[in-house]
Structure to design on (385 residues):
C-alpha cells in the first residue's frame, strides 16, 4: 500500500505542484484582503480558487499524508466563507461582529494554508534535489541545474526554521559538497552551481552551516582547484560571510599562492575575480595571510596589472560612472593598501608596518621615478576603490 501511494505521488506530482502553486498565490492574496467585498482586491476569485481545490481535495490531496493538514484547513475555510456570506446581507451589530471575526480568521487561515503549501513544496523540492545529486549528477544535467537554482533561490528568501529543519534532515549540504569536490562525477557547470547553493546556505544561517565549511575543508580547496571565475566568485562570497576564520583556513592550508597565481591568468574575468579575492583577503586577513600574499610578489603583480590596458590611475583618470568597470585594475596596488588600512584583520602597528613594506616594494618594482611617486602617493593618501 505504501509503494502504491508513492507511485501515485510521483505520477501526480507535477499536477499537484501546479495546483498548489496557484493555491499558494490565492492564499497570499487572501491574507492581504480577506474580505470578499473588498473592492481593491481579487479576494473573491482567491476564495473561489481555494474552494475549488477543497472540492477536489479527495482526488488530489488524499494520496499524500503530508497534505492532510491542508485538507483540514480547506474544510475549515469552506465553513468560514459560508459564515461570511450568510452575514453579508444583514446590518445588525451581531452580523457586523461576526463578519469582523470571520474575516480575521480567514486571513489567519489563509496564512496557515500558504505555510502548509510551502512546506510541501520544500519537502518535494529537497527530495528531488538530494535524489538527483546522489544518483547521477552527470545524467539530466539541465534538470539538476534547474533544481539547484530553485534551491538557491528558495534559501535566498531568508531564514525559515521549518525549511532549516528539512535541510538538516535531508543532509543536502553533504550532497552538495560531495558533488562539488568530485570532478569525476560532475561537470564543471554542476559543480559551480552546487558551490553557489553552498554559499546560499551559509548566508541562510551562518551559525549552523559555517562549521561544516571550516571543519571539512574540502569545499574551499575544491573551489580553488576548480579555478574558474564562478568558483572564485563563490570563494569571495564565503570570505565576506565567514571573514577572518575562513582566511585563516585558506592560509593554513597553503592556498594563498594558488590564489595569487590566478592574477596571471590569460582570462580577463579570472584575473578580475582573483584581484577581488585578494582585496577581500586583505580586508579580513590576519598578519600571516598578508605576509603570505606579499611573499608571492603580490604588489609587483598588481603593479603590472595597473600598467595594463585595463588599469589606470584613479587619482588622475576620470572618476565618472563606469570607469572602474572598464578599468578594473586601476590603482589596484593602492586599493589593496587601503583594504589593509580599513580592514578587520590587522592591529594598528601591523597596518603601519605593512604600509611601509608596500611602499618599499612599489619603489623597487616601478619602471620609472614618476611611476614610483604616483603609486606611492596613492598608497599614502588612499585611492577610491
Amino acid at each position: 500500500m505504501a509503494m502504491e501511494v508513492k507511485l501515485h505521488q510521483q505520477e501526480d506530482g507535477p499536477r499537484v505542484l501546479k495546483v498548489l502553486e496557484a493555491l499558494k498565490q490565492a492564499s497570499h492574496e487572501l491574507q492581504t484582503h480577506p474580505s470578499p467585498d473588498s473592492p481593491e482586491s481579487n479576494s473573491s476569485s482567491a476564495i473561489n480558487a481555494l474552494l475549488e481545490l477543497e472540492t477536489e481535495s479527495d482526488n488530489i490531496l488524499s494520496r499524500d499524508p503530508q497534505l492532510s493538514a491542508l485538507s483540514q484547513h480547506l474544510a475549515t475555510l469552506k465553513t468560514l466563507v459560508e459564515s461570511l456570506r450568510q452575514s453579508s446581507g444583514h446590518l445588525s451589530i451581531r452580523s457586523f461582529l461576526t463578519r469582523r471575526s470571520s474575516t480575521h480568521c480567514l486571513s489567519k487561515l489563509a496564512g496557515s494554508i500558504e505555510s502548509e503549501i510551502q512546506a510541501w513544496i520544500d519537502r518535494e523540492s529537497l527530495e528531488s534535489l538530494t535524489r538527483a545529486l546522489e544518483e547521477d549528477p552527470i545524467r539530466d544535467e539541465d534538470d539538476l541545474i534547474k533544481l539547484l537554482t530553485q534551491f538557491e533561490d528558495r534559501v535566498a528568501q531568508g531564514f525559515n526554521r521549518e525549511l532549516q529543519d528539512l535541510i538538516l534532515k535531508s543532509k543536502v549540504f553533504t550532497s552538495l559538497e560531495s558533488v562539488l569536490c568530485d570532478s569525476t562525477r560532475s561537470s564543471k557547470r554542476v559543480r559551480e552551481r552546487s558551490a553557489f547553493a553552498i554559499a546560499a546556505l551559509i548566508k541562510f544561517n551562518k551559525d549552523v552551516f559555517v562549521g561544516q565549511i571550516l571543519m571539512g575543508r574540502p569545499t574551499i580547496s575544491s573551489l580553488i582547484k576548480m579555478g574558474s571565475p564562478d568558483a572564485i566568485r563563490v570563494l569571495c562570497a564565503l570570505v565576506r560571510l565567514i571573514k577572518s576564520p575562513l582566511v585563516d583556513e585558506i592560509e593554513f592550508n597553503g592556498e594563498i599562492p594558488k590564489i595569487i597565481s590566478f592574477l596571471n591568468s590569460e582570462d580577463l574575468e579570472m584575473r578580475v575575480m582573483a584581484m577581488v579575492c585578494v582585496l577581500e583577503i586583505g580586508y579580513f586577513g590576519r598578519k600571516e595571510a598578508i605576509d603570505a600574499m606579499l611573499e608571492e610578489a603580490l604588489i609587483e603583480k598588481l603593479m603590472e596589472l595597473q600598467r595594463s590596458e585595463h588599469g589606470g590611475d584613479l587619482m588622475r583618470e576620470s572618476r565618472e560612472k563606469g570607469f572602474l568597470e572598464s578599468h578594473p585594475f586601476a590603482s589596484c596596488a593602492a586599493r589593496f593598501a587601503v583594504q589593509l588600512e580599513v580592514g578587520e584583520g590587522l592591529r594598528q602597528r601591523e597596518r603601519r608596518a605593512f604600509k611601509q613594506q608596500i611602499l618599499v616594494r612599489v619603489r623597487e618594482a616601478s619602471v620609472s621615478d614618476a611611476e614610483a611617486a604616483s603609486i606611492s602617493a596613492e598608497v599614502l593618501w588612499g585611492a577610491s576603490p
